Amino acid sequence: MLQPKKNNAPAIWFSIVLTVLMILFVETRGTGRRNTNFFVNGDSDSVGAEIFLNGAHIGRINIANNSGLSGGTFSCHLKNGSHNLEVRKPGFKTLSRVLEFNGQDYLGVNLEPLEGSNGL
User: Fold this and answer.
1) Following DSSP, what letter does each residue of 25-79 receive, concatenated?
2) Of 31, 56, 62, 100, which sees the most CB atoms within 10 A?
């Protein structure tokens, strides 16, 4: 009498699905925007301004490409607590703020030209 062959299809499909899920997990667990909780938006004069947090340089305001915003943007991840923030650009007054940060925040930047400077 002939014995029916064992069907391996469920085990094969399970292995394929598990492999795809593992690949998706590895690809999406990197340091992306999901950790971003602090945002700076500024007018066109702010583009290129350097951002300092507690005296350390942390980035630059860049052109807001494809974000729906005009001017410039900067984003990063901050820990909760008090932070000293400075926005510096040659030809403009330094903008200084003390942030009492808790969770997520947004800061609008409007840099003022130095006296006797045209802002360039």
Assistant:
1) HHHHSSS-GGG--EEEEE-GGGTT-EEEETTEEEEE-EE-TTSS-SSEEEEE---
2) 62
